[in-house]
Amino acid sequence: MARTPVVTKDAPGAIGAYSQAIKCGATVYLSGQIPLVPETMEVVSDDVRTQIVQVFDNLEAVCIASGGSFADVVKLNVYLPDLAHFPLVNDVMADRFDEPYPARAAIGVSALPKGVAVEVEGIMHIEG
Question: What DSSP designation does 118 have?
């Protein structure tokens, strides 16, 4: 099955040897997004909630460029250097996703690129 890269200017460009997403049949593998503003490639803010919102803005832009939406996301992995921020992730997700919510894992990590507070990656399944 062909692997097709997904590219959009509405999300941060890849900072290395990876694609924003790879579409393989009806499945789209969404690379991790950190809270970079696509136009400047700078971290949006030091505020954790603002960072989480930017991450989901970036992830949604890649979903749309892939031909889907958050309604098609089946799995998310959330990476946090401080798991005390996990309730903020829940709050933002409750505003952005409808039930049934995607499967999800929360992983505590020692650090993330550019010292950010959150990174989220996922898998999307697009029907038809």
Answer: -
Tell me, what CATH number does 53's domain have?
A: 3.30.1330.40
Residue written as tokens 């809270």? 35
Count of structural domains within the chain: 1
Distance CA 108, CA 122 (A): 16
> In this structure, are residues 6 and 20 in contact, taking their beta carbons and an 8 Å threshold?
yes
pLDDT digits (tens, 9 = 90+) for 12-39: 998 889 999 999 999 999 999 999 999 9
Domain coverage including residue 43 = 3-125
CA distances from 5 to 14, 22, 30, 98, 122 (A): 11, 5, 10, 27, 15
Which of these, 8, 128, 100, lies nearest to 59 by C-alpha position? 8
DSSP 26-54: TEEEEEEE-SEETTTTEE--S-HHHHHHH
Q: Nearest-CA neighbor of 127 among 75, 77, 76, 73?
A: 73
